[in-house]
Structures are given as C-alpha cells and as structure tokens.
Amino acid sequence: MDKFGKLVHYVHHKLGGNYTPISTLDPNEFLSDRLGHHKTPRIVTECAHRNTINTMAVFRAGMLFSGGKDGLVVLTNTDNGDVHQTWQSRTEINKMCYRNYVAKHSLVTGGRDGTLSLWVFALNQTCEPAAVFDGHQFGVTGLVNLCDTQFMSGSRDCTVKLWDVERSTPVLSETINRNLCTHMSHDANTKMVAQSSEDKSVRIWDPRNLEVAIEFPRKRHIQMYCEFGGDNRLFSCSNGFNGDGCEITSYDVRNPRAVREGRGHEGNVTSLAILHFDAPSRRLLVSVSADKRIRIWRTEEEGVNVLKPLWDEEVPLEADNLQVATYPEGHIIVSGGKGRLIHYHARFVAQRIILDVLLLQKCRKIAQSASAHVLR
Known about the structure:
mainly beta; 2 helices; 5% helix; globular; 5-stranded mixed beta sheet
C-alpha cells in the first residue's frame, strides 16, 4: 500500500469509517454537487404507447407526436405528460412528418407495410386516415414534408418517391440499386432533401426533378440517420459495435469532401437532432445510441465548424432504437422501449452543459384478468 493509501486507511480507522470530506478550492466541486440533484424527474407519468417508439415529430414547443411498433400515433404534452390525442394505424409506424399550412394541421405516417397515411386534425376525431398512399413494396423508412401539397418518401425497396396529397399514386419515382433508405431530412432554406442509406452512402436529392444533386464519399458503415444543421452543414451517424464505426459525420454541403468525424459512442448511433438555444453560437448537436447514452456535441467554435464532444450520460430507457427530438431553449425528448419518453432540459452551468430531467414516463400497467385465479 502506498503512502496515500496508508493515510486514508489510518483516518478511516480513527474516525470509525464515518468522516466528512473537507471542501477544496476545486471550481468543479460546486458543479459536481449540482449534478447530483438534477436526475430525479420532476414529473413521472404513465406512457401511452404499448411498445417501442420508432419515430417522433415536434408539433410545437412542449407538444410532440410519437409513433411506434404498436401502430399508435400519440400527441403528448411533454411538460406534464398529458396525452391530448391518439390515432390507431393498421400497421407499425416507422416514420412520420408534421404538416401545418393555413391553420390546417395534418400528419403523414409511413408504415412497415409500405403504405403512407394522411391524418387530418378535426374536432370530430376519426379513427380512419383521410387518405392512404400505396406505392412502396417494403417498409417506409424515410419521410419528409416539402410544401402544402407535396411530400417525399424513401423505403427499403430502394426507391425514393415524390407524392401529391391530392393523388393516390406517386408523382415521381426513382430507384437506385442497394439504396435501402434509413432516414430523410428536409432543409427549408435550400429546399433539398438529404437521405441516408444502408449502402453506407449519404445523398442529397433535388425534389423538383427527383435527381441526386450530391453524393458524399461512401463511409465504412451503414448510415443510420441524417440531419441538416443549418449554414450548409449536414450530419449523419453510423452503426457499429464496441467503438468500431459508431461515428458521427459532419459534411459541408458546398464541399462534399470536407468531412469531420466525431467518436465516442460504443454502439449503433440511431438518431441525431440539432439543439437550439438563444445564441446562435450555442447551436449544438445531440445524439443517442444503442449504448444507452446521450451525447452532446459542439458544432462551432469562434466561427469555425467543429465536431467536439461536450457532454454525455446514460439514458434510463430500454431498447436499442433510441430516438431523439428537440425544440428551442435546450429541450430534448428521447424515446425508448416499452413506449417511454424522457424530457431533458439542457442548460449551461460554469461554462459546461448539464441535463435536468423534467419528465419521465413509466411503463403501462398490465391489467390482470378477472378470471385469473390462484391454484391451491
């Protein structure tokens, strides 16, 4: 035992094993104390979903759509956990996109059976979609809204399709060999659509003619998700195991070969989202992974594009397919297995960022059958 170990053993013995640590001048000590008090959720509610949540879309600050394996679409108040409305689809929901034009709210969902459903908000809620679009052979795995009349979808059938809400058949369709879509993201500024794929590629589509405008250099692992970050930035994330792969990639849309990588996750990185604060310089990136961790990344330093880790911690949710959504002022929603959501609020303390847990959903209770009896 070294000298320091002997000293600790001696003090522990003399004080009966119970002694109060002496405070130091370490500036991180205050931060460490604060971190120990923000993990107890302020609100705990029961979740509405019965199974894993596959996709989320923000309705507005504090209101979130979620769709999952149980075929449910749920509109949840993420501030208090109240469920405002639900819709029941006939198939598992893989993707969704929210539409709002001239005060007309609607939602498009993409199902595992290859169909797309349009749900319209109405006072007299109906259980049936307003329209169903059929054209994909396999599950819909990418979906973005373009304008008041059009949306775009991608699938595991290697096709990308452009749709009009007034037509039941696609306006345009394009097939690329091995282009098994994993996600789509729409940039409202450039009007372009990014698409990640199982062929390890990330492409940018021009929806006007449904042609590939940019194809970035192919990666070594499947690209699981993509997200535009503003200022000509695009991010994607990959699958992997034990740190092999599992990276986040930053692209410059103006220069396809200007690529940065961020590493730290130990499993499939399943979802990304841009985290917004008041100051544009505090625009961050948040990622979740099969390693059950949430990580926050700095994307800019003194006007220079970077991709540096800023924070990470464990997410207390089940399932490997964690998803993440954000809305302004540092609010983060993460979904997991058994239909659960967790609501974080990110804030800066002592030049660092910490996550407060505002809401945590617990699993639904399974009602016991009245006919159940105990064998004696």
